[in-house]
Amino acid sequence: MSDNLRLLSRVLEDRPAPDFDPLEPETFGSFHREFAELRSKCPVARSEAWNGFWALLRYEDVLTAAGDPELFTTTVQNVVPRLAFTGRRPPLHLDPPEHTPYRRALNPYFTPAKMAALEPELRRIVGDLLDPIVRAGGGDICTGFTHRLPGYVFAEFFNLTPELGMAIREATREFVDAVQRFDHDRVKRTSLALYDVARTIIAMRRAEPLDPADDPTTGLLEARVDGEPLPEEMLLGTIRQFIVVGMVAPCVFIGSMVVHLAENPEVQDLLRDDPGLVPAAVEEYLRLLTPYRGFARTPTRDVEIGGRLIRKDEPVALVYASANRDESMFPEPHEFVLDRPNIGRHLAFGAGPHRCAGAPLATLMLGVTLEELLARTSSIALAGEVTMTGWPEWGTLSVPTVLTAP
C-alpha cells in the first residue's frame, strides 16, 4: 500500500460514521422526530453531506457556541451548506469587534418606536394581500401570501417602490431555489444578481439621500468609524445580507404557522376569542417552528463537546430548530404551550453577538399576519399536501388551504 493510501485509510478510520443525512426527503413532522431521537442518543451529531459537518442539537451547546466568537468563529463559514462564494457580508460574516460598527449602524432602525410607526402600513399590506385569498376561499398560502409579503415589507422598510420590492423578492426566490437544489453554479449566479440589486439601492440613495434617521441605506452611507465611512465592499455586503435574511425566513415560517393552525382548530378559536394572546403565540410559534437550522460556526481549535472531538476548522451547524425543542429546556417541547415561563429564552433569532438585528421587525410582521389572518377567517384547514423546504431553513414551500370567511 502506498503512503498516500495509508494516510487516506487513517483519515477514514478516524472519521466518525455519519449519524444523519440532511438530504433525506422530509414531511412536516419528520425532522423534529429524527432530531428528538438524535438528542437522546447523539446530541453532537455528524453528517457526511456537503463535505462533512457537525451538528449541535442541545440548547446549552448551541447557546454556548453562539456566545463564544473567539472559539466558534463565523468568519469562515456561517451556514450549512456553505453558500458564501461571492464576498463577505456584514454583520453576519464578521466577529466582534469588526462586526460591531455595522450592528451599531443598523440597531436604531429596529427600536420599539420605529416598529410602532411602521405597524399601520404593515397592517394595510397584510390585509391587502390576504383579502383576495380569503374571498377565493383559500389557495396556496405560500404562493398567494407568504412569498409576496416580504417584498412589500422590504420596500416599505427601505423606502423603495412596491414594484422594486417585488422584483427583489423574485431575485431572492431564484437564489433560494438554487440553494434548495444545491446548484452551486446557479447559487453563485443568483447571488451576484442580488449584489447588483444592492448596488442599485446604494446608487439610488447616493443620488437621492433620505433622512438617515428613517432610511437604513442612507444611514449606512453616513455611518463613520474613526471618522471614516464604512468600506464600500462591506456596505454592499451589508445590504446584500439584509435582502436575503429579510426575504427568506418569513416565507417558510408563516406557512408553517398556518399548518399548525389548520391542524389545531382549538388554537385558532383560542386566539380569535382573545387576540391579546397573539404576542405570546408568536413567541411560542418561533420556538416550535424555528425557521433556521443550519447557521454555522468554525472552531478555532480542537474542542470536545458531548464526548465528541471536533477538530479545528471543521464546520459546525448550530441547529436552532433542534435546540428550541430540547426537552431539558422546554418541557413538552413538541406541544404548543402559550404560558411557558421561559419562552423568551428561545433561540429562533440566534444568540450572542449575532442575534438577529431584525428580530423586532420579524416579530411585528408575524404578529400582524396572525392577527389579520384570524380576524378575516372563521376556519383555516388544509386542502392538500404540504411541501417542505430543505437545509438551511426549516419550513414550508407550499401549503394548500381552505379559508372560510366569518
Name its key features:
single chain, 406 residues, alpha+beta, Cytochrome p450, five-stranded mixed sheet, three-stranded antiparallel sheet, 15 helices, 14 strands, 50% helix, disordered N terminus
Widest β-sheet, arrangement of strands: 1-2-10-7-3
Counting H and I runs of at least 4 residues, what is the number of helices? Answer: 15
User: How much of the residues is beta strand, in percent?
Assistant: 5-15%
> What's the CATH architecture name?
Orthogonal Bundle
Helix/sheet category: alpha+beta
Unreliable residue runs: 1-13
Helix % is: 40-55%
The number of distinct structural domains comes to 1
Instruction: Tell me the name of the CATH homologous superfamily.
Output: Cytochrome P450
- Nearest-angstrom radius of gyration? 21 Å
How would you describe the shape?
A: globular
Number of strands: 14
Residue-averaged pLDDT: 90
Distance between the termini: 76 Å
Note the main sheet: 5 strands, mixed
Architecture overview:
The protein has a single domain, classed as Cytochrome p450 (Orthogonal Bundle). A hairpin with a 5-residue loop joins strand 1 and strand 2. It has 406 residues and is an alpha+beta fold. It has a five-stranded mixed β-sheet with strand order 1-2-10-7-3. Helix 7 packs across helix 11. The protein has 15 helices and 14 strands. The N terminus is likely disordered.
Task: Summarize the entry for a quick read.
The protein has 406 residues and is of the alpha+beta class.
